[in-house]
């Protein structure tokens, strides 16, 4: 079967991905958000696109600036955004959910404030709009409609920026979505750490993998490149967690 590499938050650094793609020639690199592209995405990956497809979901930091947003969505690779849909990549059906939960929109465990971007824009007027749609910041917020749009479909793999509940800062709706999609495996970024979720597989009903900061993990769970912070033991108490993680 074709090799897929799942790539943790790059935060503007890409040499390690180019090197890995040149060495291993995977069928696809799948970026798990917080890409913060420093140039149009197709230009960054031009050296390896002859043999490796590039797919992505966005993270919360991909809407930090107009340039970073445009480097993704004005790229010729914009059509390879997996968010909110199921696509066939190298023989696998992959579902994507980019972005993060934000309390202004929806924080699981609390009431939903807005079901979809249209409701949010209608409630806030021009202050909630940018260009021809929702404000730039909230283009990286998860709306209930994003998850609803995936329900009823089937996939082999789910990629998310947020983590499922097996992570100390993960969310049960990610679990529910994975089970509804009947996926066998999930991959997430965002938290910059890689944890062993093997004991959670029976409870979850799927294999979960967190990919660390600039880490690379293959479909079978093999670590191709450790994340830059994989050696750090993060506390589970969010009050003691390092800022920005």
List keywords for this structure.
five-stranded mixed beta sheet; alpha/beta; Calcineurin-like_PHP; Calcineurin-like phosphoesterase domain-containing protein; Metallo-depent_PP-like; Purple Acid Phosphatase, chain A, domain 2
What does this structure look like?
- By secondary structure, the protein is an alpha/beta fold.
- The chain has one domain (4-232): Metallo-dependent phosphatases (Purple Acid Phosphatase, chain A, domain 2, 4-Layer Sandwich), CATH 3.60.21.10.
- It has helices spanning 15-24, 41-44, 66-73, 117-124, 144-148, 172-181, 201-204, and strands at residues 4-7, 28-31, 53-56, 86-89, 92-97, 129-130, 133-134, 157-160, 185-188, 207-210, 216-218, 223-225.
- Strands 3-2-1-11-12 form a 5-stranded mixed beta sheet, with helices on one face. A 5-stranded mixed beta sheet has the order 4-5-8-9-10, with helices on one face.
- Strand 4 and strand 5 form a beta hairpin.
- The longest helix has 10 residues, at 15-24.
- The protein is globular.
- The N and C termini lie far apart (34 Å).
- The model is unreliable at 239-245 (pLDDT under 50).
């Amino acid at each position: 079967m074709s090799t897929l590499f799942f790539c943790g938050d790059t935060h503007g650094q890409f040499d390690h991905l180019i090197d890995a793609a040149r060495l291993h020639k995977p069928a696809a690199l799948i970026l798990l958000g917080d890409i913060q592209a420093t140039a149009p995405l197709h230009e960054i990956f031009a050296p390896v696109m002859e043999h490796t497809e590039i797919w992505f979901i966005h993270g919360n930091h991909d809407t930090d600036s107009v340039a970073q947003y445009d480097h993704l969505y004005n790229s010729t690779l914009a059509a390879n955004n997996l968010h909110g849909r199921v696509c066939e990549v190298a023989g696998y059906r992959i579902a994507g959910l980019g972005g993060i939960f934000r309390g202004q929109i929806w924080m699981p465990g609390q009431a939903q404030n807005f079901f979809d971007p249209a409701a949010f824009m209608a409630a806030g007027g021009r202050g909630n709009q940018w260009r021809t749609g929702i404000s730039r910041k909230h283009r990286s917020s998860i709306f209930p409609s994003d998850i609803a749009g995936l329900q009823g479909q089937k996939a082999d793999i789910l990629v998310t920026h947020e983590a499922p509940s097996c992570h100390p800062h993960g969310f049960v709706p990610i679990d529910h979505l994975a089970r509804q999609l009947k996926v066998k495996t999930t991959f997430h970024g965002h938290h910059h750490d890689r944890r062993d979720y093997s004991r959670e597989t029976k409870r979850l009903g799927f294999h979960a993998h967190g990919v660390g900061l600039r880490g690379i993990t293959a479909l079978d769970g093999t670590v191709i490149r450790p994340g830059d912070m994989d050696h750090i033991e993060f506390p589970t108490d969010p009050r003691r967690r390092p800022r920005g993680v």
